[in-house]
Every structure is written in structure tokens, then in C-alpha cells.
Amino acid sequence: MKKHTVIVVDDQRSVRSMIKRWIESDPNWEVIGEAANPFEARDLIVEKQPEVMTLDVHMPGMDGIAFLKKLLPQYPMPVIMFSSSTTEGASITLEALEAGAFDYVTKPTGTPESLTEAKEDLLSKLYECLNFNTANLSASVKPSGNSGNNGKQKANFKRKFILIGSSTGGTTALRKLLDDVDESFPPILVAQHMPENFTALFAQRLNSELKVQVKEAKDKELLQTGHVYIAAGNYHLGIQKVGSEYYTRVFQSDKKNGHRPSVDVLFESAIEQEIAGNSIGVILTGMGSDGAKGLLQLKGQGCLTIGQNKETCVVYGMPKVAYELGAVNYQIPLGEIVDKIKEIGSL
């Protein structure tokens, strides 16, 4: 049986050896090359033509971000970044995702649990790379236009809440989607699979680029129009009603579908608060099935639902499961989702 192929790029030999052992513990994968810097990696890619590359962000000669920007336009391929969980590491990783990296794995802290978690995360994402839609790569590396909906007619929303779930490829997709959102939009709550230290930084970056107010959600914040609330890493995000007003609910309970924040938890909170018929649910690119069942429940309670189509997803996983369950009213390209929200938001 032919094995899937990977090259490992990291300036530390011990790290390359560890990653190689992890990958080759799965009989379906083979490391066909190791590189200590981007120049060696470039030569390996030309010679070996691997299916996937793992890449450290800190390397001598050229950092991983600059390497990605030079490499991907010429050799489109899925790249998994290895990132630290520090604020600096999170910032660099977000830059890498904007530059077209497929996904990232957080470096282990050295505990047995963190080593196991990182290994399992890497192997899972390797398989997801096989579904990577390289046709979307060129779009993902383009800078945001930050149109801010300039010159477009604002919608008259009757629906009061917009709920969005996303995972792999979601940071880029969200940025593009929110580019066309203006201050007339009802509160938007987002569950994006992302660890601690990443979500606050991600929200800050969006807030600095977009017209609407974007923030990492805190508990018991009044939901306001023109505001986007990003679920905090390692916390679930939901909605709670106090008196006649609706607020965020940020809490920790068990992971759902292996995630915290979980998209299903966000969607289910709208059902619990009996606001599904007053909401729009959106499921974007991502691997796995988180959010699919919740979206189906939302639809059953009168929520209008949108799924990102296969052609524009980095990974057509969560939207595919939702679509096959019958949870999606409208399956459309990413670039059409905001217009659809405006169209159905008045229904």
C-alpha cells in the first residue's frame, strides 16, 4: 500500500526526530525528508513533492511566515505549523494562517498528557490535509479588502441573533465574511475552534481591521447590534436571558465533540433560550462534525441556516455533515453568505 508523504521542517534535530516518530507511528504515513531551514525545505519539496509539510515558525535564515508567502503561490500544499501556546506564538500562528497555512499544532509542554495530545492532534490533521482544497489557497493568501460594506444598502433585520461555527480554515473565512458586515447587523456570536491565548488576539486583530466591534466574549455581556463576540479558548459560549435582555454566557463544562468552545453548545443555547426562530445559524469550513446536530435542531425550531459550500471550504467537513443531516437551508459560497444573511434576516 502506498503511504502518504510528509516532510518535516524544523531547525532542531531532536524535534524533527520526535515529529517523525509520531507520524510514522501511523502505518499510512511516511516522512520522506527532513529540513533544518527553508532553503533545504524548498529543495526537498521540488525533489520529493510531498503531500504535506510540517513547519516550525522560528528558523535561521528565513522565518516560517516569509517562507510560506514565497512557497505557497508556487507550490500549493497543506502546511501544518508547529506553534507555542504563548501570546507571541499565537500571534505568529495567526499570521501563518493568514498566509495560507492549513492548520497548526500546539507544541507540547513536556508532560506525558501534552505529548499524547499533540501527537493525536497532528495525526488527525494529517488526515484532514488529504481533503485540503488547494483551489482555495490562492484566495486565502490574498489580503483582506476590508470593504466594510461601503456603498451597499444596509439591511433591515427582523432576526435578532446570528450564530456562527467554524474550525479549520475558519480564521480566514471569518475575516472575509465579517469584512462585509456593518453596524446594522444583529449581535454575532462565533464559536471558532481555537485554544487559549489565541482567541483574544484573534478578536483584537479583527477589531482593528473591521467596521464592527469584535471582542473575545466575557461572561454576562449585553448583546448589542454591530458587535461580534468570539468564544474564548477553553470556554463554551452561549446566550442567557436576564429580564427582557439577552447576554453572553461564558462557562466551562465538559468538551463536546472534543472541543471547548463547541459549536453545538453555542447552537443549543439558542434552543434553550427559545430564540431559534429569531436567529440565523451559519456553519463554516472545518473538520469533524461539531455544530451539525445543533444546526439541525436550530432549523427544526425555525432558525434559517446557511452552510459554506464545498468549493470554498478549506475543509468540507462540518458543513458537509450538516448538509447531509438536512440541517442546511442554503448551501452557498463563502462570498455570498453575508448577502444571504441580509436577504433572509428580514424574514
From TrEMBL:
One family name in Pfam for this protein: Response_reg
Protein name according to UniProt: Protein-glutamate methylesterase/protein-glutamine glutaminase
InterPro entries attached to this UniProt entry: CheB-like (IPR008248), CheB_C (IPR035909), CheY-like_superfamily (IPR011006), Sig_transdc_resp-reg_Me-estase (IPR000673), Sig_transdc_resp-reg_receiver (IPR001789)
SUPFAM superfamilies: CheY-like (SSF52172), Methylesterase CheB, C-terminal domain (SSF52738)
Entry's EC annotation: 3.1.1.61, 3.5.1.44
Gene source species: Leptospira perdikensis
Purpose: Involved in chemotaxis. Part of a chemotaxis signal transduction system that modulates chemotaxis in response to various stimuli. Catalyzes the demethylation of specific methylglutamate residues introduced into the chemoreceptors (methyl-accepting chemotaxis proteins or MCP) by CheR. Also mediates the irreversible deamidation of specific glutamine residues to glutamic acid.
Protein origin, superkingdom: Bacteria
GO cellular component: cytoplasm
Family of the protein in this entry: Belongs to the CheB family.
